[in-house]
């Protein structure tokens, strides 16, 4: 069984080596083929291919996005990670999970973040509860009014 520090390192690897480098081989290494993701207001998404589709759509919309792991707490087989990211809306954004009708690029800079919970099993990320506030992103790209 992996230690809590190893579990935290696994999640950091997903962000820093996988997502920041757009390296889907690392995504394959760190996420389980049985991966399940939970986004607010959406039914669970199952499998690594939908994850890669979601990430690909996100990277098309924000090709310069860079993730930073701000904080992590681990207990047993769970890791809580607070992260932030910054990038520019340069492609059609289709949301999470991706939908057919996206929002055209605006060229606006966005700052986003979340505090997510990851379940680790057999050295891979098996499940994720994501807290990304899509409304905040929509506000920053001008699709809805921003609240102060």
Comma- or semicolon-separated keywords:
148 residues, alpha+beta, Nuclear Transport Factor 2, Chain: A, 4 helices
Mind explaining what this structure looks like?
It is a single chain. This protein has one domain: Nuclear Transport Factor 2, Chain: A. It is an alpha+beta fold and 148 residues long. It starts with a helix and ends in an 8-residue tail after the last helix. The model has no long low-confidence stretch (mean pLDDT 90). It is globular. Strand 5 (109-121) and strand 6 (124-129) form a beta hairpin. It is built from four helices and six strands. Strands 2-1-6-5-4-3 form a six-stranded mixed sheet, with helices on both faces.
Distance between the termini: 45 Å
State the share of residues found in helices, binned by percent: 25-40%
User: Major beta sheet, specifics?
Assistant: 6 strands, mixed
CATH structural fold name: Nuclear Transport Factor 2, Chain: A
DSSP helix count? 4
How are the strands ordered across the major sheet?
Answer: 2-1-6-5-4-3
Compute the average pLDDT.
Answer: 90
Order of helices and strands: HHEEHEEEEH
Low-confidence runs: none
**What share of residues are in beta strands?**
25-35%
Question: What structural category characterises the helix and strand content?
Answer: alpha+beta
**If you compute it from the alpha carbons, what radius of gyration comes out, rounded to the nearest whole angstrom?**
15 Å
Provide the CATH top-level class.
Alpha Beta
Which architecture does the CATH hierarchy give at level 2?
Answer: Roll
Count the domains. 1
Choose one word for the global shape: globular
Number of strands: 6
């Amino acid at each position: 069984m992996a230690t809590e520090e190893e579990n935290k390192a696994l999640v950091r690897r997903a962000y820093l080596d996988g997502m920041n480098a757009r390296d889907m081989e690392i995504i394959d290494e760190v996420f389980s083929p049985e991966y399940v993701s939970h986004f607010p207001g959406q039914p669970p998404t199952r499998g690594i291919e939908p994850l890669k589709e979601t990430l690909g759509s996100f990277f098309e919309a924000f090709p310069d996005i860079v993730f930073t792991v701000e904080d992590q707490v681990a207990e047993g087989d769970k890791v809580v990670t607070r992260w932030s990211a910054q990038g520019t809306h340069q492609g059609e954004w289709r949301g999470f999970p991706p939908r057919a009708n996206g929002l055209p690029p605006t060229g606006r800079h966005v700052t986003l973040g979340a505090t997510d919970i990851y379940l680790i099993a057999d050295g891979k990320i098996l499940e994720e509860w994501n807290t990304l506030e899509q409304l905040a992103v929509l506000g920053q790209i001008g699709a809805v009014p921003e609240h102060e």
